[in-house]
Amino acid sequence: MIYRLVLIASGLLMMFFIFGLVMFIGSLSGDTISDSAMGNAILTGVFLLLTLVVLRIGLGMRKSMHRKFESAIADLSATNGHIDAVTFADSVGITLDSARDVLDAMARKRHWRREELTGYNARYYA
């Protein structure tokens, strides 16, 4: 699920934004305003802009992926009466491990019953 990596990247860019902000404040608080204050202000602005853009992209990707999850869950529940982790992973296009993580989180939140199957598979009853 690539959106998680994009959101992690936005956190990394936020770290660089905070670093630039600290350096900018440090350059302003000295005895004399140094020439590096303008460079630090530009650095801070660039990383703020990059952080916001990447965060927006990551949240959009997350939203579309969760829509995909919901439609797959609705289809599998209507068709089979349960959600099978392997079938869910194939229909959404993610790994079985990620599918189990997603379905386990939804099972706790929505109070679904889970049945362990062979081969690292699980069946969820909504």
List the helices and strands and how they pair.
Elements: H1 2-28, H2 36-80, E1 83-84, H3 85-92, H4 96-110, E2 113-116, E3 122-125
Antiparallel strand pairs: 1-3, 2-3
Helix pairs in contact: 1-2, 2-3, 3-4
What can you tell me about this protein's structure?
This protein is mainly α. The protein has two domains: 1-64; 82-126, no CATH class. Helices cover 75% and strands 8% of the residues. The protein is built from four helices and three strands. Strands 1-3-2 form a three-stranded antiparallel sheet. β2 and β3 form a beta hairpin. The protein starts with a helix and ends with a strand. The mean pLDDT is 92. Keywords: Membrane, Transmembrane, Transmembrane helix. The chain crosses the membrane at residues 5-25, 37-59.
Summarize the structure.
The chain contains 4 helices and 3 strands. It is mainly α and 126 residues long.
List keywords for this structure.
3 strands, mainly alpha, 8% strand, 2 domains, three-stranded antiparallel sheet, 126 residues
Radius of gyration over all CA atoms, rounded? 22 Å
Mean pLDDT: 92
Strand content: 5-15%
Strand order of the largest sheet: 1-3-2
Low-confidence segments, ≥5 residues, pLDDT <50?
none
Q: Describe the sheet with the most strands.
A: 3 strands, antiparallel
